[in-house]
Amino acid sequence: MDDLEELKPQNVKIEMDRWNISDLKEYINKLESEIAKVKKIISDKENASDSVKNLFKN
Fold it and tell me: Which tens digit of pLDDT belongs to each residue from 2-44?
């Protein structure tokens, strides 16, 4: 569990109030890209888990 805690982002305060609109939009795009990557990893892991369950089910 300690390894997982190390991977979590630290509570770093970002002063986005000073960013311009294009920088804010770029930041959103980067976050959405990271979210998509994580969702893909979760999906792959769920599919692998389902495959293993089905293998032992029969």
Answer: 666 666 667 767 889 999 999 999 999 999 999 999 999 999 9
Rounded to two decimals, the pTM is 0.62
Compute and round to an integer the Cα radius of gyration of the chain: 18
Residue type present at position 48: A
8: left (phi over 0), alpha (psi -120 to 50) or beta: beta
Kindly list the domain boundaries of the chain, sorted by start residue.
Answer: 14-57
Residue whose structure tokens are 């190390």: 6
CB burial string 5-22: b at 16+ within 10 A, e below: eeeeeeeeeeeeeeeeee
Query: How many other C-beta atoms lie within 10 A of the C-beta of residue 42?
Result: 10
Residue with tokens 């609109």: 21
